[in-house]
Design goal:
Strand order of the largest sheet of chain A: 1-7-6-4-5
Oligomer: heterodimer
Shape of chain B: globular
Largest sheet of chain B: none
Strand content of chain B: under 5%
Number of helices of chain B: 4
Distance between the termini of chain B: 6 Å
Number of strands of chain A: 15
Chain lengths: 332, 73
């Protein structure tokens, strides 16, 4: 008794911010370094009128067109940039997608670890027979919350959404999950204002960090070096624990997909965990860091490029804002 | 690690133009250099450096003291 990913699609908004445009905005910025070290040449940007729920809707339509939509009885939506504080985005999606009112729906708030956590939630719902076929969506528009003069974050993050159909299966194709949290690092990646604790401040003070990046507490702040420290101190152990938990040897994993944060960090983690380059996914050139969507986008790319085939064992690992991390081994 | 290799790596990470690097050579660490330095220190010295410690690195000698002069041949 178990669960499997039946289908994955993604949707990226039409707007783009490429290296040429970035250079025009920040003439002193070394965009070659961003292309070569960070591995990003272009990012998709949602237009002013386009929201994360619009991206979620478009990704959902794509996947439902290739799936048995009659069977969907649950929607799980992962987003940190929801259209509203309330109500739940997944409830609005049920109506917009024309799914029956018997559909269960919930949102959860996680970032880069969100896809792995979402799979864990789906597996629980399916194995407990609470649901039989789940529309699991990741959708974020981080770029709406980045200060226009924050060149660091503008060069890294892109908007996007993915939709996966996760169904009950006789064989357990979603393996055991290793999850973790360190809330003491909550302020390493944060939007301080606009929630219940601090209201949005029209006159928020402009602050600087890193190489002259500007932001206010209404915007996303990321402490890059500390996030990097967190990953190198925790992710190698996460991979080791996940292999042990699933009783799988590293050599027997066909492909590894880590959260696509930046190329330099991925290359470093790959060397530190001893994974051969040909089994390790690095592709964020045209999307940037799309937060909870990077892993499913990578899964789709790897399937299309035949890097992974039916029956392959794939290790997924997500880590970031929270601080939060999770990994599992799936079979496709 | 041999000291000359250490200096060569640091020169590349921090994009130092000076031909003669001395302990008193001033250094500036930008965002990308921070990441490269964190990775370098972890990989070669198994040392973790916080952002606060990075801010305190003003000259080459601060970096040598951080890794420990005894670890450089």
């Amino acid at each position: 008794m178990g669960a499997k990913i039946e289908n994955i699609e993604h949707y990226l908004p039409e707007g783009k911010l490429d290296s040429v445009a970035l250079q025009k905005l920040f003439p002193d910025f070394d965009v070659d370094k961003i292309e070569n070290k960070v591995g990003i040449k272009s990012r998709h940007i949602a237009g002013e009128e386009v929201t994360s729920l619009d991206l979620a809707y478009n990704a959902s339509i794509k996947v439902l067109n290739n799936s048995n939509r009659q069977k969907i009885d649950f929607i799980v939506l992962c987003s940190q940039t929801p259209d509203y504080l309330l109500p739940t985005g997944a409830c609005i999606l049920q109506d917009r997608l024309g799914l029956p009112t018997s559909t269960g729906a919930l949102d959860f708030n996680l970032g880069c670890s969100g896809y792995v956590y979402g799979l864990a939630v789906c597996k629980g719902l399916l194995e407990a027979r609470i649901a039989t076929s789940i529309l699991f969506i990741t959708a974020d528009t981080y770029t709406k919350f980045i200060h226009e003069k924050d060149k660091g974050n503008r060069s890294i993050f892109g908007d996007g959404a993915t939709a996966s159909i996760v169904t009950f299966d006789q064989k357990d194709k979603l393996g055991q999950f290793k999850l973790g949290t360190d809330g003491s690092g909550f302020d390493k990646l944060i939007i301080k204002n606009g929630g219940g604790k601090n209201t949005f401040d029209q006159e928020a003070e402009i602050k600087t960090y890193g190489d002259g990046n500007q932001y206010t507490d209404n915007c996303i702040y990321m402490n890059g070096p500390e996030i990097f420290n967190f990953t190198i101190n925790n992710i190698p152990q996460l991979i080791k624990d996940t292999l042990e938990l699933n009783d799988v040897k590293k050599e027997d994993v066909d492909y590894f997909i880590f959260h696509q944060a930046n190329k330099f960090m991925l290359d470093f983690l790959r060397r530190k965990t001893g994974i051969p380059a040909e089994k390790f996914h690095v592709n964020l050139e045209s999307t940037g860091n799309t937060v909870s969507s990077t892993i499913p986008i990578a899964l789709k790319q790897a399937l299309e490029n035949k890097k992974i085939n039916k029956g392959d064992k794939v290790l997924l690992a997500g880590f970031g804002v929270g601080l939060s991390w999770g990994a599992t081994i799936i079979e496709l | 690690m041999e000291k000359k290799h250490f200096i060569a790596e640091v020169k590349e990470i921090l994009l130092l133009d000076e031909q003669d690097i001395s302990p008193d050579t001033n250094i500036e660490i930008d965002s990308m250099a921070s990441l490269l330095l964190i990775a370098f220190l972890d990989e070669h010295f198994s040392k973790s450096i916080s952002q606060e410690q990075l801010k305190d690195l003003k000259q080459i000698k601060d970096l040598i003291n951080f890794v420990g002069a005894e670890n450089l041949k």
